[in-house]
Amino acid sequence: MIKRIALIALTCLALPCLVQAQDGLNTSYFLSNLPQRFRLNPAYQPEYKAFVGLPGLSGISINYLNSSFTPESLLQKRGDSIYMNIDKLYNGLYKNNFLMVNNENSILTIGFKAKSWYATIDVTQKNDVLFRYNKDIFTFLKYGNADYPDMDFGKLGLNLNSYLEIAVGLSKKVNDKLTVGGRFKYLTGIANLQTTDSDLGIRTQSDGTLLLHSRQNIRVTAPVHIRSKIDGKPFPENDFIDWDEFDINSDDIKISDILNVKNPGIAFDLGGEYKLTDKINLFASITDLGFIMWRNKDFSYNFHQDAEYEWKGADISGAITGNENAMNDAFDKLTDDLKSTFKLQNRSASYISMLNPKLHLGATYQLHRMVDVSGLFRASMMNNLFLPSFTAAVNARFIRNISASVSYSVTRGSYANIGAGLTAKLGPIQLYVQTDNLLACNYTNTKSANARLGINLLFGHKDKRKKEKTAQKPEEPIVIAPVPVKKDTVQKDTTPSVLPKPEPKVEPEPVAPIIQEEVKPVENLPLQKFYVIIGSFEKRTGALSLQRQLKQMGFADSTLLLNEEGMYRVSASCHPTHDECWDEVFRIRKKYPQFKSCWGLTTE
What is the distance between the alpha carbons of residues 435 and 61, in angstroms, rounded to a whole number? Predict the structure, then answer.
């Protein structure tokens, strides 16, 4: 009998393993060129002026986490048969255990840039499931109560939350270092199950009898009808309900009953990004601060239980005298006694459930202009269960359209998680896929598994401009006005001076303000993100001559750059941001007519 009960219990525990799951995908936090990063940090501004997530395909994610056992420790193969290895499963359990499953399905995602602002609109359907159990339950099933007189089964319970989220986000670039953002989310509850105030245990009394006690409060809101089998009506409030009276059905449920607005809620996301140095960036965000009010009276239920049962044993003497039904009769009597003792009481149905808030703290360090390393601490709360994790990652962006990330994560109960992420842009279409645990491919020996994938449409990269024009005669000299040097000032001198004939320059006419190019500094200086280019030369001597003239005019940060084609670019100044470089180009064009051909160069 005990083994039969154990098999049933273990089967129930194994069922959630088959559910596919969401949101604990840490590698996404630093995956370059992925617009959906704004869901983890609302301060993030995608580098494209606009993006659209394909409806139903822009984001599908699953997440599964088990604190204790693996499928391999649960099921064993012997010949052609598969059986449950209860001993191996029991030895792998902790005092308190949990199994978590999450799922996220993106319905519509849109984002667009307006000057220093970035706005997003996001519609997503989310599901969260958490099952908690205590090892003492299995101790009782395996060993009985002979050596364990008092057994606390703890807060045994199942929690489920399914809802629709409609979010509007806005981020603002405050200055060159700080960006902040937030999202307001309107929620519509679809289904909820909560086991609250749970207390379950067995105590062996001095006379050898067992005292079972159970206190449970079960809240349910779902598109199903829970009614009396007798008259088909809802159970009266505060009445005790016989277990045999329960009738659960969904035959007359409509789509409008599922997507209703009778279970409203709100939530907020807040985030920030701070550029500490040219190489170090800091990130912080907190998401899902909110609640849902479950008040749909047609589909909301609240059942309470608080009772004790004293079991003095069962009379199975008839089995000795040949009564084949004695064992079954004793078991049926015990079942009837438990059902009559542990009745449920119907209470007020409306209630509030909190979302599961998540905290992210991260940083990146730029090793190379195409490679950076990052670290992320993430902590979440689910039904008072604290779930911390840490992720270290290496992120690369070798060309604009492709980015990749490799990560290692440590989570509660799972310490060997190698992750990877990839984004690839083909024309306006971007494909992305990411996971925190590639080792989950060996599903028989894993405690965690997750994945995120989707398709986006990207439009208008912020640095994309028309190609550089080259149309002037090569022998024309560069005319500059030398100016006496004063500290931190540039003065005008109306007396023009003509340099010796320089090397042919490439850009004689005004060109596009910002152009992307692969370059490296000629001097032993770190590469910057943006430069204002005054002239270009095939030979170094002409470039050095122009650089000296620029420094005499007060451009102290003038730099020589060498591109992949062997051309020397002469920069008047360098800048950390696109906007600063843009403004400086037009300032120089306006103030120095002889430099009307100057333009901006970006190394990003």
Answer: 9
pLDDT digits (tens, 9 = 90+) for 237-260: 777 777 777 777 666 666 666 666
Phi first, then psi, for residue 26 (nearest 5°) are -75, -30
Our measurement of the distance from residue 10's CA atom to the centroid of its chain's CA atoms, rounded to an integer in Å, reads 31
List Cβ neighbours of 112 (8 Å cut-off, separation of 6 or more). Answer: 49, 50, 51, 118, 119
pLDDT at 437: 81
- Bridge partners for 200 per DSSP: 154, 214
pLDDT of residue 327: 67
pLDDT at 288 over 70: yes
Q: Confidence class of residue 442 from pLDDT cuts 50, 70 and 90?
A: low
Q: Residue 487: which pLDDT band, with cuts at 50, 70 and 90?
A: very low
Within 8 A by CB and 6+ apart from 65, the residues are 24, 99, 100, 101, 387, 411, 412, 413, 414, 447, 448
Assigned token pair, 182: 């937030």
What's the sign of the alpha-carbon dihedral 365, 367, 369, 373?
Answer: negative
The arithmetic mean of pLDDT across residues 584-598, rounded, is 88
Percentages (nearest 5) of helix, strand, coil residues in the chain: 20, 50, 35
SS3 state of residue 369? coil
Q: Where are the alpha helices (DSSP H) in 36-109?
A: 71-74, 86-91
Burial of 195 (0-12, 13-18, 19+ CB in 10 A): buried
532's CB contacts (< 8 A; 6+ apart) are 571, 572, 573, 574, 575, 581, 584, 585, 588, 598, 599, 600, 601
Q: How far apart are CA 594 and CA 604, in angstroms?
A: 28
Distance CA 355, CA 381 (A): 9
Tell me which residue has tokens 């990839």. 422
Instruction: Tell me the C-alpha distance between 379 and 303, whole Å.
Output: 32
* Mean pLDDT (whole number) for 464-490: 39
Q: Taking Cα atoms as reference points, which of 481, 462, 479, 491 lies closest to residue 581?
A: 462
The phi-psi region of residue 322 (left if phi > 0; otherwise alpha if psi is between -120 and 50; otherwise beta) is left
Taking a C-beta distance cutoff of 8 angstroms, is the pair 604, 516 a contact?
yes
Q: Report the residue count for the chain.
A: 604
The two tokens of residue 208 are 């050898």
Q: Do the bridges between strand 599-602 and strand 514-516 make them parallel or antiparallel, or are there none, so unpaired?
A: parallel
Number of alpha helices (DSSP H) and beta strands (DSSP E) in the chain:
8, 35
Tokens representing 14?
A: 């194994």
Asked if residue 456 has pLDDT above 90, the reply is yes
Which amino acid, 26?
A: N
pLDDT tens-digit readout, 185-218: 999 988 888 887 777 888 877 777 788 888 888 8
